[in-house]
Design brief:
The chain is mostly helical. It has helices spanning 3-12, 14-21, 25-51, 61-88, 91-95, 98-119, 125-128, 136-162. The longest helix has 28 residues, at 61-88. The protein is elongated.
């Protein structure tokens, strides 16, 4: 089975066809996708701004991360599920769309950046938890994350203007 065959089978699946042929499913799924993405970006932006050195109201970096992480992961899981549903409705065209592919790359880089942060600065968070400014590694991770998530939102919106139905 070739890559094109796999994408065609996703596109022709009952789920993909149902979403594509419905007048209401795609907009509802897209709405949930946007709300979940907004929640992900919002919670991550709060942490990123703290990593950049902006004080958080009565919370150190560790507590802020602990408090927001569950919301971030639940919203991210919902965004992935809804994104996969949207993808299934037009898999071949999404896969050929440059903004879509760029968004997927930006998401991968955001994950790598998160891993970098957790393997470096976060391991020593006890030493800088309440300190302002945080260490350079934390600030770099925060700035990179914030930039990538802004790019992800931009690319996600751009997809709507470039995808061929």
């Amino acid at each position: 089975m070739t890559w094109t065959d796999l994408l065609q089978s996703i596109n022709d699946s009952p789920v993909g066809a149902g979403i594509r042929e419905s007048t209401v499913l795609f907009p509802w799924i897209e709405t949930v996708h946007v709300i979940m993405t907004t929640t992900v970006v919002g919670t991550i932006a709060i942490v990123d701004l703290r990593l950049l050195g902006y004080a958080s109201h009565r919370r150190g970096a560790r507590q802020l991360i602990i408090d927001l992480l569950p919301f971030t992961w639940v919203a991210f899981a919902c965004a992935v599920i809804t994104g996969l549903l949207l993808f299934s409705s037009n898999a071949l065209n999404y896969w050929a769309d440059v903004p879509f592919l760029a968004k997927m790359c930006a998401l991968a880089f955001a994950g790598i950046n998160m891993a970098f942060f957790h393997l470096t600065a976060y391991r020593k968070i006890g030493q800088w938890d309440d300190a302002l400014p945080p260490p350079a590694a934390a600030r770099i991770a925060g700035a990179t994350s914030l930039g990538l998530w802004i790019l992800i939102v931009f690319l996600g919106r751009w997809i709507g203007f470039t995808i061929q139905q």
